Please model this.
Amino acid sequence: MQPAAVASRGDPRLGRLFCALHNVSPLAIGLIEVPVFGTFMSKKLTPGTPAPRSAQYRNDATGYEVTAVKGKPLPPTPGRGQTYTVADPTKHKSGK
Model:
């Protein structure tokens, strides 16, 4: 059964059950969207890409988060074709 088919049936329990049975993050199949500054960040970053800003980056497939510093490459992912998105931008007092 495909994740999209489970999520589209309307019962959120089916999506959570699918995630539990298949060890998949609800974030990875689109059951959860994470807001960033009031909008939904959709820019996908591949491993090895320099981080555009210092932030916590979430692996879209596993849901795990890593900390990346601006300009440093994002770490490898456990599987092929996995990407990162910004989960929580770093808050600091820059410019003072």
